[in-house]
Amino acid sequence: MTATTSESESFALSRPVHVGRAHLVVRDLDIMAGFYEQALGLKRFEQSASGVELGAGERVLLTLTTHGDAAPALRNAAGLFHNAFLMPDRAELAHWLAHAAQLGIQFEGASDHLVSEAIYLSDPEGNGIEVYRDRKPEEWTYHADGTVEMDTRRLDLQALYDSAAKTPWTGMSPEAALGHIHLQVGSVPEADRFYEGVLGLKKMASYPGASFFASGSYHHHVAANVWNSRNAPARTAAMTGLQDYALAFNDRETLDKVLTTLEGLEIRVERSAEGYRLTDPWGIGITLVAAQA
């Protein structure tokens, strides 16, 4: 099986479904917004006393809000493992790496996943972040069942750093996106039933304790693991961390099919100005959005 895309578009975003934006509840709005502006290079779109919208180009990628009773989520709570910011190419990833190194940001890991190269860190309140670039889909190895070969190998950070442009970094590329979101859940089989059986994504890869789901032969738009959170109960509204995220549908027929499935299963869906809101089995909010609307 092969998958192709043009040079000008992101394969992740051109699929029938992709991740739109994520929403974190934070304790210190100023510190957190400043971190994402300085360290990640996101630009500030909207701000109020209780919230900030940040993004790249014309896209909102991250919403931060705060409220008085926000209590730190425990490490083993269901919620966010990491938000994954997708750079348009390896040169942009290297340029960001040089910027982050100059700031003295502490990295938590760096991996070659065969389909991508990724660098890991956390924000000041412990929310996980991945900054990555995809290899071209033509370079990925697909299996006969449509799944994709992924692995976790050492990424040579020094070589990536050495390849970086020597010009000043001016912020996250307008072509950057939230390529995928990785969740902490209480049960992988239950995640399989929900993300495959209900939302219609395909399981593209499995690791011990984790599944990776995607639309349109991407390596993954959503991942779910139990590495810290096995048997975790549903989140409560007062928790910090991931409040909700958006799944954007480029194809209206695909969205209508998911809505029909939700109705048939009697899963509660609320219509909002943005789209159709529901929660996953662990209380993580999901808004289904018609991307072209």
Description:
- By secondary structure, the chain is α+β, with helices and mostly antiparallel strands.
- It is 18% helix and 34% strand.
- It is built from 5 helices and 17 strands.
- It has a 9-stranded mixed sheet with strand order 9-6-7-8-5-10-13-12-11.
- It starts with 16 loop residues before the first strand and ends with a strand.
In short:
By secondary structure, the protein is α+β, with helices and mostly antiparallel strands. Helices cover 18% and strands 34% of the residues. A hairpin with a 3-residue loop joins strand 2 (43-47) and strand 3.
Which structural class fits the helix and strand makeup? Answer: alpha+beta
The shape, in one word, is globular
On the 0-100 scale, what is the average pLDDT?
Answer: 94
Radius of gyration: 18 Å
Please give the alpha-carbon distance between the first and last residues. 32 Å
Helical segment tally?
A: 5
Please mark out the parts with pLDDT under 50 across 5 or more consecutive residues, or reply none.
Answer: 1-7
Draw up the topology in text.
Blueprint: E1 17-25, H1 29-38, E2 43-47, E3 51-56, E4 59-65, E5 79-87, H2 90-103, E6 109-112, E7 116-122, E8 128-134, E9 153-154, H3 157-162, E10 177-184, H4 188-198, E11 202-207, E12 210-214, E13 222-225, E14 241-249, H5 252-264, E15 270-271, E16 276-279, E17 285-290
Q: What features would you highlight for this structure?
A:
about 290 residues; nine-stranded mixed sheet; eight-stranded mixed sheet; 17 strands; disordered N terminus; about 20% helix; globular; alpha+beta
